[in-house]
Design a protein that fits this description.
The protein has a single domain, classed as Dihydrofolate Reductase, subunit A (3-Layer(aba) Sandwich). Helix content is 23%, strand content 24%. It contains six helices and nine strands, in the order βααβαββαβαβαβββ. The chain has a nine-stranded mixed beta sheet, with helices on one face. The longest helix is centred in the N-terminal third of the chain and has 13 residues. 35% of the residues are buried.
Amino acid sequence: MARPYVIIVSEVTVDGKLTLQRGVSSKEIMKFMDEEANRYLHELRAKVDGIMVGAETIRTDNPFLTVRYVEGKNPTRIVPTAKADIPLDSHILEKHAPTIIVTSKTAPDEKVQKLKEKVDVIQCGEEKVDLIKMMDILYDRGIKNLMVEGGSTLNWELIKNGLVDEIRLIHMPFIVGGSNTPTLVGGEGFKTLEDVVKTKLRAHFIRGSHLITEWEIKFED
């Protein structure tokens, strides 16, 4: 399979949380990111062909997913959502950058048609979005490098399917806690040490007042 090189990029607290509590926008903890950390994030956006988030991130955060803190092109915005459950007033449906919505065959025709009036829509999968097939399609469309700023569910699905090459973390210097607060990776999780995805620390450095760590996924031979 030909697929994009995939980098998960996320802001995480000391205890690995993505936000203050479930349903609260991650923008709340991002308020503590200084200018240099924001520049790092937007430098990455400017270098990739595509940027992906899940539908829940769109509904909760309503992001633009554009390059603003540095000079550079806006990547193509990509959202996998089986039911095409994207509010029609979402910022990603505006003309700041190209957008691709990836749905399954279970998506209501009415929703799909309304989205097609605004952006590109790809149907890929029966009941769920087929992420492996989606990656193949994106690669054929010129998305060779893909940055993922998704939530814990999307991160899990990509990692579970072996579709991630790197993880880059911007560490937030505080602890949130909460047993139901989303962490970097959610889902059912791996149950044995034999199944876990192994990583290798490639780099660590300070940008502004934030620790940045960059991890490579160690694929089994």
